[in-house]
Design goal:
The chain has helices at residues 2-17, 22-27, and strands at residues 33-46, 58-73, 76-91, 98-113, 118-128, 133-138, 144-150, 156-169, 172-185, 206-223, 226-237, 246-256, 261-272, 276-292. The chain is mainly β and 293 residues long. The protein has one domain: Outer membrane phospholipase (ompla), Chain C. A hairpin with a 4-residue loop joins β12 and β13 (261-272).
């Protein structure tokens, strides 16, 4: 876990080391590459002493990177986005620090112009987590226990496929890929009978699917200093239960107070019946330090 945390902080450090003023990045038209992004640090701590209304001492922190590096020259465009975040919370009465956020995601779309706003495209989407995830419970004496359930690349998801992309500008695009290969990677030692572990057969380390993928990216400035970023992915597996459409929707809201302080809201909902029979929901909200680059 320490090595993976060190990797995340190193990634944050390398991106910050190459940082530049965000206005300058927009104005730089000398080369085909455009880079922009932000790094955030959220921190929360609560302490109670003889507080009759009740409360539990706790400390929580999270870090995140949202970074774009895009290429455009002639008939070609290549849009790339990296999203990485990690958060933990520790309360006085629990023996374990628990995760509040843990994800690593890469989105990449290569396009060659077919008409004014349509492109022939090839896309890649990769998702996993940094550290172990646990299922928590109680032992016979009422003490809290935990069992490992997930880890780095268990699961890991890779989607690749050709298609067509509608691109209005860097802030709005829709990609349709009717022949998308989806790979689900897991630790074979964690698999369960009846494909109960992320749809992977017991003793295997990978599941393959072929289906239709639709993805959308839409970023808009609602009012001054308030940005909404929407990322939507839909996937239907031709080979099994095509009516069960996988959904992954992310909303990232940044409300800028000044250059270094922002209020951040991150909301994500996932439906994937191979992972969980229902909607998974994650929401993180806080005021923290922000650095744009």
């Amino acid at each position: 876990m320490k090595k993976k945390l060190l990797f995340l902080f190193s990634l944050l450090g390398m991106l910050s080391a190459n940082a530049q003023d965000p206005v300058a990045a927009v104005q730089d038209t000398l080369g085909p590459w455009t880079t922009k992004g932000n790094a955030t640090l959220l921190f929360n701590q609560s302490t109670f002493s003889n507080w009759v209304a009740g409360g539990e001492n706790n400390i929580a922190a999270s870090i995140g990177v949202n970074y774009d590096f895009n290429y455009k020259k002639g008939e070609w465009s290549w849009d790339n986005k990296v999203i990485a975040s990690y958060g933990i919370v520790k309360t006085k009465t629990t023996p374990f620090a628990k995760k509040t956020d843990d994800r690593l995601e890469l989105n990449s779309v290569l396009g060659k112009k077919a008409s004014e706003r349509w492109y022939y495209s090839a896309f890649l989407n990769f998702k996993t987590q940094f550290t172990k995830g646990y299922v928590y419970g109680k032992d016979d004496f009422g003490a809290e226990i935990r069992d490992e359930y997930t880890n780095f690349l268990s699961p890991g998801y890779l989607l690749v496929g050709p298609g067509m992309m509608y691109k209005r500008d860097d802030n709005f695009r829709i990609n349709l890929s009717p022949a998308t290969s989806k790979f689900t990677f897991v630790d074979s030692n964690m698999t369960l009978p009846d494909e109960a572990y992320f749809g992977v057969k017991e003793g295997k380390s990978m599941r393959y699917e072929l289906g239709f993928n639709a993805s959308m990216y839409y970023k808009l400035d609602v009012i001054a200093n308030v940005t909404f970023e929407n990322i939507l992915n839909l996937y239907s597996n031709y080979l099994e239960d095509p009516q069960n459409v996988d959904l992954d929707y992310q909303l990232n809201v940044v409300m800028r107070i000044n250059r270094y302080l922002t209020t951040n809201l991150s909301f994500q909902t996932i439906y994937d019946d191979n992972a969980y029979q229902g909607f998974q929901v994650r929401q993180v909200f806080g005021v923290g330090a922000n650095y744009g680059f």
